[in-house]
Design brief:
This protein has a single domain, classed as Membrane-bound Lytic Murein Transglycosylase D, Chain A, CATH 3.10.350. It is an alpha+beta fold. It is globular. A two-stranded antiparallel sheet has the order 1-2. Helix 1 crosses helix 2.
């Protein structure tokens, strides 16, 4: 997975929050973890960590988690 950028963390940030900030979708955090395997399993990150930001594949749209779906099962 190629990377084009770097992201410097702030103390206590989480991979899902970073994904939300970068790509507008917290469910894409697994792409960030795949590009930075040393953060796998960390609930929160230390400040000043440089993360590789991968280019997302064309089909990066994810299925919304249950709490983000409307009554018809569509992404809210």
């Amino acid at each position: 997975m190629p990377t084009t950028d770097a992201y410097i963390t702030s103390q206590g940030e989480t991979p899902d929050r970073i994904a939300l900030n970068l790509w507008g979708d917290e469910t894409l955090f697994h792409h960030l973890v795949a590009a930075n395997p040393d953060i796998r399993g960390l609930a929160s990150l230390p400040g000043g960590l440089a993360l590789a930001v991968p280019d997302l594949p064309e089909n990066a749209t994810e299925i919304a988690p249950p709490w983000k779906k409307d009554a018809a099962g569509r992404r809210a």
